[in-house]
Amino acid sequence: MSSCSCATGAAAWGRQPDSSELLHLIRASVASIRMDAADGAAIERRLSSLLRHALATGSPFDIALVLGSAAELMLFPEQEVLEQCTAAVQQADQQALRGLVWAVRHRSMRGGKGVRRFAVDPQ
């Protein structure tokens, strides 16, 4: 869960992240994911694990961070999971997080049928 540790720290301070802070955290998360995973399949497994954990904890910040990281890697969760993530983040009163999820959804739709999707496996 190393790529989510920055997010948990910011959320613990009780402040709302701004877009530049989110971008910094997303880039750090992507770098961590790439170091942890050697190939495309391993990256998908890592994203699946991170998103499963974020959904289990119910942290809008962690959910948005994982979605942003996945989008930077041009990977998106299956549509059903993306809807679940959107609902969880919409409940948060944090405009930057909601904007990030909107951007991820938009990028996913623009990718069309050829967009790469990953499953969130239960464990």
Description:
The protein is built from six helices and two strands. It is mainly alpha-helical. The chain has one domain. Helix 2 crosses helix 4, helix 3 (40-57) runs antiparallel to helix 4 (60-72) and helix 4 (60-72) crosses helix 5. The radius of gyration is 13 Å and the shape is globular. Mean pLDDT is 87; it is low at 5-13.
Short description:
With 123 residues, the protein is mainly alpha-helical.
Rounded to the nearest angstrom, the distance between the terminal CA atoms is: 15 Å
What is the number of E strands?
2
Number of helices: 6
Mean pLDDT: 87
Low-confidence stretches: 5-13
Cα gyration radius (Å):
13 Å
Range of helix content: 55-70%
Which percent range describes the beta-strand content? under 5%
Please tell me the total number of domains. 1
**Main sheet properties:** 2 strands, parallel
**Spatial strand arrangement across the major sheet:** 1-2
How do the SSEs run, as a string of H and E?
Answer: HHHHEHHE
**SS-based class:** mainly alpha
- Looking at the structure, what is the overall shape? globular
Features:
5% strand, single chain, 2 strands, 123 residues, two-stranded parallel sheet, mainly alpha
Which helices and strands appear, and what pairs or packs with what?
Elements: H1 5-12, H2 19-36, H3 40-57, H4 60-72, E1 75-77, H5 79-90, H6 95-110, E2 116-118
